[in-house]
Write a structure and sequence with these properties.
The protein has about 100 residues and is of the alpha+beta class. Helices cover about 30% and strands about 50% of the residues. The chain is built from two helices and four strands; from the N terminus they run E-H-E-E-H-E.
Length: about 100
């Protein structure tokens, strides 16, 4: 199992219930495929450096996960097609 750090930005127009459901859905992608979410942080709403799809702010979330490369590929694909997520970034943690 490889360790990854994942950050994603959620649209600010979503209500609290929709954001909660979305974050659970994102974590479920990893856990359903025998991965492990080590840590999940809500970083809060922040102003974006530049507009993305006419949005000027977004809610930032940070996840530390342990999973396989194949699961990360599926995770990346599903976040790309999700219109509720403005951007996401996946980094392989090679510090250990």
């Amino acid at each position: 199992m490889t360790k990854y750090e994942i950050m994603f930005i959620v649209r600010p127009t979503l209500d609290d219930k929709a954001v909660s459901d979305l974050t659970k859905e994102v974590q479920k992608i990893i856990t359903d495929n025998k991965g492990k979410v080590v840590e999940f942080k809500d970083m809060g709403r922040k102003k974006l450096a530049y507009p993305i799809d006419k949005e000027i702010s977004g809610s930032y979330y940070l996840m530390y996960v342990e999973t396989t490369h194949d699961v990360i590929g599926e995770f990346d694909r599903r976040l790309r097609i999700n219109e509720k997520i403005l951007r996401h970034l996946i980094l392989k943690n090679e510090s250990e």
